[in-house]
Amino acid sequence: MSPERIIAKLLALGADLSTRSAVRAALSLISEDEEELTDQIYVELKNKAYKDDFAKIPPEKRAVFIPPVPQEYKILSCRIWQVWF
User: Fold this and answer.
1) CA angle 26, 29, 30 (to 5 degrees)
2) Rounded to the nearest 10 degrees, how much is the dihedral formed by the CA atoms of 40, 46, 48, 49?
3) H or E segment at 11?
4) Angle at 69 between CA 68 and CA 72, to 5 degrees
5) Is residue 36 scored above 60 in pLDDT?
6) H or E stretch including 40?
7) Nearest residue to 2 via CA among 46, 35, 41
8) Nearest CA-CA partner of 5 in 31, 29, 41, 35
9) Are the beta carbons of 40 and 20 closer than 8 angstroms?
10) CA 24: distance to chain centroid?
11) Mean pLDDT in the chain?
12) DSSP one-letter code for 33
């Protein structure tokens, strides 16, 4: 099931989705794999919630924060970078 459909299902049930732990608890209620989906759904919700606010910020004033890559993924990311660019 897609994250959008899961979110719609949770909202139809009246689930609290305001925090990451609330999303995890709600996913467990509908027998979804909360370990795998919690972060994906939480980020999706926050992106949708702040989409209009983010759009108001001029591109030259935006910042993107990228987390550090663990050592074991650096080789893979270099290969992907070479394929894409």
Assistant:
1) 100
2) 160
3) helix 3-12
4) 150
5) yes
6) helix 34-55
7) 41
8) 41
9) no
10) 13
11) 76
12) -
Contact 20, 38 (CB under 8 A): yes
The tokens for 57 are 């910020």
**Residue 40: what residue type?**
Q
| Structure-block tokens of residue 3 | 């994250």
Residue bearing tokens 């989409």? 51
Q: Any idea which residue has 């290969």 for tokens?
A: 79
> Which of these, 67, 7, 52, 49, lies nearest to 32 by C-alpha position?
7
Kindly report the CA angle at 68 between 75 and 48, in degrees rounded to 5? 115
Amino acid residing at 72: E
Rounded to an integer, what distance in angstroms lies between the CA atom of residue 3 and that of residue 54?
21
Q: Give me 32's structure tokens.
A: 């979804």
Q: Residue 56: which pLDDT band, with cuts at 50, 70 and 90? A: very high
Q: Which tokens is 23 given?
A: 């999303």
Structure tokens at 1: 């099931």
Whole-model pTM: value is 0.56
